[in-house]
Design a protein that fits this description.
The structure holds two protein chains of two kinds.
Chain A (H helix, E strand, L loop, with lengths): L3 E5 L7 H23 L4 H10 L5 H26 L7 H18 L8 H27 L3 H21 L34 H18 L1 H11 L1 H7 L3 H24 L14 H11 L4 H24 L6 H16 L1 H4 E5 L13
Antiparallel strand pairs in A: 1-2
Helix pairs in contact in A: 1-2, 1-13, 2-12, 3-7, 3-8, 3-10, 3-11, 3-12, 4-5, 4-6, 4-10, 4-11, 5-6, 5-10, 7-8, 8-9, 11-12, 11-13, 12-13
Chain B lengths: L4 E9 L4 E10 L4 E5 L6 H8 L7 E6 L2 E2 L5 H7 L1 E4 L11 H8 L4 H14 L15 H14 L4 E5 L7 H16 L3 E5 L3 H7 L2 E6 L2 E6 L6 H9 L17 E10 L9 E9 L3 E5 L6 H9 L12 E3 L2 E2 L5 H6 L2 E4 L14 H9 L5 E2 L2 E2 L1 H14 L16 H14 L4 E5 L7 H16 L3 E5 L3 H7 L2 E6 L2 E2 L3 E2 L5 H7 L9 H10 L1
Helix pairs in contact in B: 3-4, 3-5, 4-5, 11-12, 11-13, 12-13, 13-14
Chain lengths: 364, 513
């Protein structure tokens, strides 16, 4: 008989979320070491390239912060929905639609120097993301269509819409038929935060949104209602917290955040609308949200880690010669190990002693 | 004669508490043996040891005269020990027959007629092809009892089996148990209901704080003396005098008809009732006769369509289409039957659970939580209702059933209702807490609140109600004053014989006399 067994937790543990995230990172390191060895590379060199090298130069730090912004922003929005058990996995599509609408504004008012142009783009992006997520909310509340499938499929549709627009209506007429829009004017792009990097002011939006998310989840009645709906749907019904309203709210918040993240890309490092807007931020943010324990503060740390892996993957390719898939592999490992470790949120390991033996009676 | 089961010096220590302290207990073949004690007295721990779920730290178990280590429940069943649990261990997505087939040898097809036979024989009305998820709490317990019976054990452990049966069902069950005992089966019977123990059991072992405080022949004791052995003091009783309320009708239901979405749930057929300010109306009936649908329509968890809105009126205004929050705003509060997951969020602490129904009463301001007010309210409720817990920061799931119920009832009462609906107020709550909860309801009535109590426990309804109505298969009887009827008639009405309640019947008797 094994001497260690699992026992359901009777009390929630404040420590468990940290334990679970830490364990997932640790296991990812172990499995990553194995992969490096398989490639005949030194794990130490590999980890150094991924986790240390990016932080040794201004350029590296800038790139990490550049990736951190959208991840943080999207993950905060998604986490609120996930706490309410509304599974929006289509942030990528909401990001794209947000980017498109913001670009339409930028192209329409090209040449304007108004300081209202950028805020208008942010607003358009938020509305675009909300609208796209709202389709899933409407289908779910009206026809009980599963939001996981709907949001995911809407992402594919969003991508096709983008392809159509950049090769058609929104293409730069003087762009030699490249599938991209005109370059946005200065008034339509975020100012740089740090000289000689690509870090721009959209990072501030992500940080402010993080603080608002914290207030919303910890201190607002609406956030409380969402959490109750996720934890105990019958209690939410008993209290009179409408389920439909929770679904709408959860999806609209996630959509707005993703849409604004899209604005941050086209009005930031890209400076135009093109075929590739995001390296999968919308999907990676799902991992970020869970790795951060769906908690606004945890998500700040997990998005930093994930951004580091993005940039570190590039560094590892150049300095150690690892394939570019290393980023995807590390993200995948993190998610897998997180999901496996998350059993410890509801259970704990106990050592079996002869007098403390419990046999689950229901399993009998 | 060799004892069927003999425990000597059984001791079980948990990190915080000595759950069993040198317990001796002997069950002879053919004996119905009561184990009496309040929640937390150590009954459950002792039963788990006998059923092989836990191992004792000290002491010996003899089974049929042979020292035995009961390794696990499967071993216990192989020995011939069967148990009917207080908490259900049924799979909701399976049918009754499929659930039973998991524990009893035989295919679903073979078992179906056996289940039907047994359900007739033991008076446990259960349909083998029903899915457990559509069964009420009471029906689920009947499935548990049936499943145990079909395993043909030599010793049957029953944990509060009668709490969900009508009086006639209890009598049937007792007849069955007595027949089984006469055939040489041993029965361990756990119950709070002292009258039942006196009627049924040959011997009683009384536990308090993990120790045996006495053994008695229940027939030779009064309920009073048994209660004193059990709780160490006199049993508190709700002080209630039946009142004839003349206040305004605060809650009225007029010819309510309802067909639930779940095809297995009971439809409601022409339900009418009204509750006045300052009275308690009791709704009797075996669970599964439409009480769940009625209660969720009254609370607002289920809403009526616009054209039927006036079937339910609160303070003369139609509220059939209003949700729970809106009804609460107008003074209608509700204590549901399920505490964890409906009346409270299990992982939230008591402070957060105060907010669940108190968010409209000063615990939130402009959409933001008022943490101070939440904590203050919880503190006051904990004090006023004697909730034993670690304070407002204790998670709801860490409280015992009785204490959580005291908190939920306390929360709703502290929110100053005009109308209070309580479903199964003391289900699974120990006698001390139950008496406290009933007393609070009586006090609340005296303060002018209209109270509707839905309960399966007749004793309780007779103790606190001013009027009674009975539900059977989605219909409801007319109301009768509690002091003009008796347990016998209400029991018959619970099986569908509403005529027994007719005040005319008693008038006729007078005329004949």
């Amino acid at each position: 008989m094994p001497s260690i067994y699992l026992e359901p937790r009777t009390e929630r543990s404040a420590f468990a979320p940290f334990l679970v995230s830490g364990l997932a990172v640790f296991l990812t390191m172990v499995a990553g070491s194995g992969l490096f060895l398989l490639y005949g590379k030194s794990p130490i060199a590999g980890f150094h390239a991924i986790f240390i090298e990016p932080l040794l130069s201004n350029y590296g730090i800038g790139e990490v912060l550049l990736k951190l912004g959208p991840l943080l922003l999207i993950a905060q929005g998604l986490a609120i929905g996930f706490r309410a058990r509304v599974w929006n996995i289509g942030a990528e599509g909401q990001l794209i639609i947000g980017a498109i609408l913001a670009s339409v504004v930028a192209i329409q008012f090209d040449g304007s120097t108004s300081s209202l142009l950028l805020p208008a783009m942010v607003l358009a992006g938020a509305l675009g993301g909300m609208g796209w997520a709202g389709i899933a909310a409407w289908l779910r509340t009206r026809y009980n269509a599963n939001e996981i499938l709907v949001t995911f499929m809407l992402s594919s549709i969003a991508l096709q819409v983008l392809y159509y627009l950049v090769t058609g209506p929104l293409r730069d007429p003087q762009g030699f038929n490249f599938p991209q829009s005109i370059t946005f004017s200065a008034a339509a792009t975020f100012p740089l935060l740090i000289e000689n990097t690509r870090v721009n002011a959209s990072l501030l939006i992500a940080l402010v949104v993080s603080f608002i998310a914290w207030v919303f989840m910890q201190r607002s009645l609406m956030g409380y209602k969402l959490v109750v709906g996720g934890l105990a749907p019958h209690a939410a019904r008993y209290a009179g917290f409408g389920e439909k309203r929770a679904i709408w709210l959860a999806l609209l918040i996630g959509g707005a955040a993703a849409g604004v993240a899209g604005v941050g890309e086209v009005a930031g490092p890209l400076g135009m609308l093109q075929r590739t807007i995001s390296p999968g931020y919308g999907f990676t943010a799902i991992i970020v949200a869970f790795l951060g324990g769906l908690h606004p503060i945890g998500i700040v740390f997990s998005s930093a880690l994930m951004a580091l892996i993005y940039v570190g993957g590039d560094f590892a390719r150049l300095s150690v010669g690892l394939p570019s898939a290393v980023t995807d592999i590390f993200q995948g490992l993190l998610l897998t190990f997180y999901l496996a470790s998350s059993l410890l949120l509801t259970h704990r390991l106990r050592r079996r002693s002869s007098e403390n033996r419990i046999v689950a009676e229901i399993a009998e | 004669m060799t004892p069927l089961l003999k425990l000597a010096g059984i001791t079980k220590v948990y990190p915080a508490v000595v759950a069993n302290d040198a317990i001796d207990l002997t069950v002879m073949p053919g004996e119905i043996h009561a184990v009496l004690g309040e929640n937390g007295a150590g009954k459950s721990t002792l039963m788990k040891i006998i059923y092989g779920v836990s191992m004792p730290d000290a002491g010996t178990i003899e089974w049929n005269g042979t020292p035995t280590k009961i390794k696990n429940p499967a071993h216990a069943r192989a020995l011939g020990i069967g148990m009917v649990f207080q908490h259900f261990s049924l799979f909701e997505t399976l049918t009754v027959a499929e659930n039973i087939a998991l524990a009893v040898k035989g295919s679903v097809k073979e078992l179906t007629p056996r289940i039907q036979d047994a359900s007739v024989r033991f008076g446990l009305n259960v349909q083998p092809d029903m899915r457990v998820q559509s069964l009420s709490v009471g029906e689920r317990q009947r499935v548990e009892i049936l499943r145990c019976m079909l395993q043909e054990p030599k010793l049957i452990i029953m944990d509060e089996p009668t709490s969900v049966l009508p009086p006639q069902g209890v009598r049937e069950l007792f007849k069955t148990l007595k027949t089984l005992a006469a055939e040489g089966f041993g029965i361990l019977f756990i119950s709070h209901k002292l009258d039942e123990i006196r009627e049924l059991c040959d011997v009683a072992t009384v536990l308090r704080h993990g120790k045996v405080t006495g053994t008695a022949i229940p027939r030779e004791e009064s309920s009073h003396s048994l209660a004193r052995m059990m709780i160490g003091r006199d049993l508190p009783h709700a002080r209630n005098q039946v009142v004839e309320a003349t206040g305004p009708e605060l809650l009225t239901v007029n010819h309510l008809k309802f067909i639930p979405d779940d095809i297995f749930a009971t439809s409601l057929d022409d339900i009418s009732l009204s509750v006045r300010s300052g009275e308690i109306l009791g709704i009797a009936g075996v669970s599964g006769n439409g009480q769940n649908s009625l209660v969720s329509l009254l609370s607002g968890e289920t809403r009526l369509s616009g054209s039927e809105a006036d079937a339910i009126c609160l303070l003369d205004a139609p509220i059939g289409t209003a949700g729970p929050a809106e009804r609460r705003e107008q003074g209608l509060h509700f204590v549901p039957e399920e505490r964890l997951g409906r009346g409270a969020v299990p992982s939230h602490d008591l402070s957060e659970n105060s907010l669940l129904t108190g968010f409209g009463s000063g615990m939130s301001r402009n959409g933001f939580l008022n943490l101070g007010a939440m904590k203050r309210f919880s503190d006051e409720t904990i004090d006023a209702f004697d909730v034993r817990c670690g304070g407002p920061n204790s998670a709801a799931q860490s409280l015992s059933g009785g204490n959580l119920q005291k908190f939920i009832v306390g929360r709703e009462i502290s929110l100053e209702p005009k109308v209070l609906i309580v479903s199964q107020p003391t289900w699974g709550v120990d006698v001390g807490a139950a008496a406290a909860i009933r007393q609070k309801m009586v006090d609340l009535r005296d303060a002018g609140v209209a109270i509707l109590v839905v309960s399966e426990e007749l004793e309780e309804l007779f103790e606190i109600s001013d009027r009674l109505q009975v539900m059977f298969r989605g219909k409801i009887s007319h109301s009768i004053r509690t002091n003009q009827t008796n347990v016998e008639d209400i029991g018959l009405a619970m099986t569908g014989d509403f005529d027994r309640l007719s005040p005319k019947a008693s008038v006729q008797v007078v005329e004949h006399a």
